[in-house]
Amino acid sequence: MDAVVLVSHGSRSAKTKREVTALVKILKARTGKGIFEYAFLEIESPSIPEGVDLCVRQGATKVIVLLNFLNSGRHVDQDIPDIVKRAQQKHPGVHIALSQPVGQHPDIVPLFIDLINNA
Q1: How many domains does the chain have?
Q2: What pLDDT, in 10s, does the model give residues 95-113?
């Protein structure tokens, strides 16, 4: 069974966690994925390893780590792949895939144009 864990940076702002939670509810409903969790790199919980563990406990055989990061950088290029590698070692029977950051998606330009036009 496929699962998704949406990974965000984490913030001390309670508003951020509410926004992430709301986004996960919408994505879960629209994708039809039975297992859809969220996790944070730092500051907030659950952590990325905890998010992966939640998915595995629910029966996931594949976990897609969906990056809620705009661009590449130390977290995207190094920190999160290292965390995912350790999670893969902990769960050798589960395939863990890592998405690209949002900013590398081809629809980012039309999205930004829409934001500009509606500002």
Answers
A1: 1
A2: 999 999 999 999 999 999 9
**Stated pTM of the model:** 0.94
Return d(Cα 92, Cα 109) in angstroms, integer: 37
Range of the structural domain that residue 83 is part of: 2-117
Among 9, 75, 91, 105, the active-site one is 9
pLDDT, one tens digit per residue, over 58-72 is 999 999 999 999 999
Q: How many helices (H) and strands (E) does the chain have?
A: 5, 4
105 is catalytic: no
According to DSSP, the β-strands at 95-98 and 62-67 are: parallel
CATH of the domain at 31: 3.40.50.1400
